[in-house]
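task queued by scheduler; priority normal; single chain, no ligands, no partner chains; default sampling; output format set to structure tokens
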Amino acid sequence: QVQLAESGGGSVQAGGSLRLSCVARLSGYSNTCMGWFRQAPGEERKVIAVIDNSGRASYADSVKDRFTISTDNAKNTLYLQMNSLKPDDTGMYYCAADWGVWMCNLGTSFGRWGQGTQVTVSS
């Protein structure tokens, strides 16, 4: 069974940067799709960015040009580089993954999730 484990969350001041990591061993699976989601306090979980096995990425408007999603297949790791952080970026961040996905986009439904890592941005 594929397990996902996030790390890299923490507290940072507005304008700062953080890099989240998610270890997910998906070798052997085809048409993989991975993503990052954010759940702010009192709100539902929302997609931030997704990336397919070809490296094509899509971003929510709220993070475009500030966040970068990437993968390192040799390390079985998904990353989210977050720059120019804002207080509105505060929340629990979850990585998600699935395979056999023919269209990896911001509307993709994922079947596998990590436990989440907290990001707090202070003003």
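post-processing summary
- The mean pLDDT is 95.
- The longest strand covers residues 91-98.
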